[in-house]
Amino acid sequence: MLMQMQKEKTEDESSKAISIDSKTYCKLGHFHLLLENYSKAMSAYHKYYNDAETNHWKDANFLYGLGLVYFHFNSYQW
């Protein structure tokens, strides 16, 4: 879906915006986490986190994945 959106965006910049479900970014973060590509996982998780319509604090899978990425980058406070 993301690749299709990018292709259509480059073809016609003035066309209507394509709506992508925010859960797609969360799933993409999980996928990159499994591939051990932590920087891309962090990017996808933050896109999900910054979406105003989601209740990210209620999504345990998202919080666990984001915690693993933060732990990998040593970005946690004791």
SSE ordering? HHHH
Residue share in helices?
A: 55-70%
Anisotropy-based shape: globular
Helices and strands: which structural class? mainly alpha
- Beta strand count: 0
- What is the end-to-end distance? 39 Å
Question: Strand content of the residues, in percent?
Answer: under 5%
Can you give the mean pLDDT? 84
Radius of gyration: 14 Å
For the biggest sheet, the summary is: none
Which ranges are low-confidence, i.e. pLDDT below 50, for 5 or more consecutive residues?
none
- How many helices? The count is 4
Chain-wise SSE layout:
Elements: H1 2-11, H2 22-34, H3 38-49, H4 60-72
Task: Tell me what you see in this structure.
The longest helix is centred in the middle third of the chain and has 13 residues, at 22-34. 62% of the residues lie in helices and 0% in strands. It has 78 residues and is mainly α. It contains four helices and no strands. It is globular, with a radius of gyration of 14 Å. It has helices spanning 2-11, 22-34, 38-49, 60-72.
Keywords summarizing the entry:
about 0% strand, about 80 residues, single chain
Briefly characterize the structure.
The chain has 78 residues and is mainly alpha-helical. It has four helices and no strands. The longest helix is centred in the middle third of the chain and has 13 residues, at 22-34.
